[in-house]
Amino acid sequence: MKLNSIDNGNEFDWGKTSQDYAKYRDIYPQEFYEKILSLGLCKDGQKVLDIGTGTGVIPRNMYKYGAVWTGTDISENQIEQAKILAESDNMDIEFYTCGAEDISYPDNTFDVVTACQCIWYPNHSILAPKLAKILKKGGKFLIMYMAWLPFEDDIAMKSEKIILKYNPDWTGAGEIRKNVWVPDEYSEFFDIKLHDIIDSDVAFTRETWNGRMKACRGVSASMSAEDVAKWEEEHMKMLDEITDESFAIKHFISIAELTVRK
């Protein structure tokens, strides 16, 4: 994938990091899922489509609440990992490889569409009207995002600096608390019902934080194998200076709830 607005137009491929993604990016805290449930969404037989599903983190973690899930992603490798993980837990989730703009369903199919950590990537002039059609009357579109806070967390800041040393075009650094982006194209079809931000201290070990950073867009998805190895050596050297076996990284979670206008 290549977008001028991201990483100075450099290519990235989530498929290159799918195994690390599957192992290290299932990190959303319980309060993230409880917030979704408090909105009355993604449960009790509702039909839910998760676009940009990656390794199926959202459908797999919310499966127990009774929604009927479908997950799509442009990366075949990501979908392969999603299927392996779901099948290992006997979850009946439909996963298939498809760009968000290419989904094809009859009108009024879904109660909810979710998009987590992926709102920057699709062509929204195509996607917005398509989601409005496939959602039922009163249907919801949830846009979700979670990020570490480097200006409030020393470990996160040091990790970002090492990524930028090897990948100076990475635009994922320097996050601050803010509402998740709702592209303008959705204003024609949806009303924004809610913006909410939740703070969360997410627990890691040196291994899992290294894995989380390695599975980000700025590292394995875009660096050469040689640079990934150099980055990992330096990153682990930094983490080895941490005396505690486990530690918390400050994050924020941002959720936007949109209601389709029909």
Secondary-structure blueprint:
Blueprint (H helix, E strand, L loop, with lengths): L17 H7 L5 H9 L8 E5 L5 H6 L5 E6 L2 H13 L5 E4 L12 E7 L7 H11 E14 L5 H13 L23 E16 H9 L10 H15 L6 E15 L2
Parallel strand pairs: 1-2, 1-4, 2-3, 4-5
Antiparallel strand pairs: 5-7, 6-7
Helix pairs in contact: 1-4, 1-7, 6-8, 7-8
Which structural class do you get from the secondary structure elements?
alpha/beta
Strand-residue fraction? Answer: 25-35%
Radius of gyration from the alpha-carbon trace, in angstroms: 18 Å
Number of E strands? 7
User: What fraction, in percent, of the residue positions are helical?
Assistant: 25-40%
Strand order of the largest sheet: 3-2-1-4-5-7-6
Spans of at least 5 consecutive residues whose pLDDT stays below 50 are: none
Q: N- to C-terminal separation?
A: 33 Å
What is the N-to-C order of secondary-structure elements (H for helix, E for strand)?
A: HHEHEHEEHEHEHHE
Please tell me what the overall shape is. globular
> Helical element count?
8
What composes the largest sheet? 7 strands, mixed
Look at the structure and give the mean pLDDT: 96
Question: Any key phrases for this structure?
Answer:
262 residues; alpha/beta; 26% strand; globular
